[in-house]
Amino acid sequence: MTTQAGATTARAEDRDGPPVRRVAVLSVHTSPLDQPGTGDGGGLNVYVREVAQRMAAQGVEVDVFTRRSDPAQPATVTIVPGVQVHHLDAGPAVPVAKEEVTNHLCAFLLALQAHPTAGTHDVLHAHYWLSGWVGRRIAPRWRVPLVQTFHTLGVLKNATLAPGDSPEPPLRLHGEERVAKDADRVLVLTCGEARLLHTTYGLSGARLTVVPAGVDLDRFSPGPTRVAPVGGPELLFVGRLQPLKGPDVAVRTLAEVRRQVPDARLRIVGGASGNGQGRTGPAELRALADELGVADAVTFEDAVAQTRLVERYRAAEVLLAPSRSETFGLVALEAQACGTPVVGADVPGLEAVVRGGGTLVPNHDPVDHAAAVVRLLTDPEHAAATRRAGLAAARSASWDRTVERLLAVYADVVAERVLASAERQAASTEVAAVTAERRSA
Hints:
By secondary structure, the chain is an alpha/beta fold. It folds into two domains: 195 residues, Rossmann fold; 162 residues, Rossmann fold. 44% of the residues lie in helices and 15% in strands. Helix 8 crosses helix 13 and helix 11 packs across helix 14. The chain is elongated. About 3% of the residues have low confidence.
């Protein structure tokens, strides 16, 4: 299967100037203003914000629409000139579990249609399936093409459930299928995601475009020369504390590592999210650490802003990424950009990001993850080579490249829409001419 990555860019470059000046972005269930690592905040939030700011720098105006989750939130927040986040009233103005947002999608749709900017955009880009549900209904009314990025897929999560996890409901699976088939273009973060959409929903390569996420190379960098850690080497886990991300595997990995590196420590940065409440939240992970005899070596920290997160990456010897599923390993990419090796699970989203910059383990056995960590901690030459490879991989990824590809896709779907309209008009004119000729005969 061939996707549209290269062909799209080439066709867009042949056109006279960018045809896209205004973009509507749907991020219904989470706002780009939310802190990644808490609630439903994660890579999607970073993606939307980073991309929107860089589009604005190129003269493209971006309106982001999200659900109001706090009565104190203003109707509109300007992130930077050219990027506005609009909070729409849909359901109670309180945080709502992602699974419950479906009850408020109709209200969100009505609020979006009534917004002063409704119908003023050139293209609509929806993020996650909930936004896609709204997008596939509003795009025809606005007469604009719909571009969809799922970020995560229910079929993939169901195939990689953590022990005791509940599968994604049929409503989500059906919704994703309808959105995938109705969108003008589906953007995927990796080739693995493209293959999954092709085999699951039969999407052709012509309707799939690989647009990887990027990393802020100005912010995430190695920084000062590394010095020997004080108090023992630190392992790092960054992300939402839910079974899918495997924070429990990280704690068990530490316990195994300390059999050979007794002063190793683990820092966990992030908050409980979704089904992590009561299962892999801080209290449960502390209890696990105590059971394993490593409680004094585990530090818990709430999610931090990216300006502080870079310090955590630089201080760590190894990033642990034992996720059971990842669409795109943004945290792993950020760590590598800081020169921090990664030890993670061999899942598609990490496979696309972690090459020589770490070790991917083909299971979630803490013993195997620990073996990879110990080698990095005890073999300086291997660790140095891994850092160099990770830095090289990170340099090849940037948000500017992501935006370049996105704008090319936008130009492409707009042009396709114009061409299709012209073809319909020509066909209609031809039919009218033939009808008139028959009537006059």
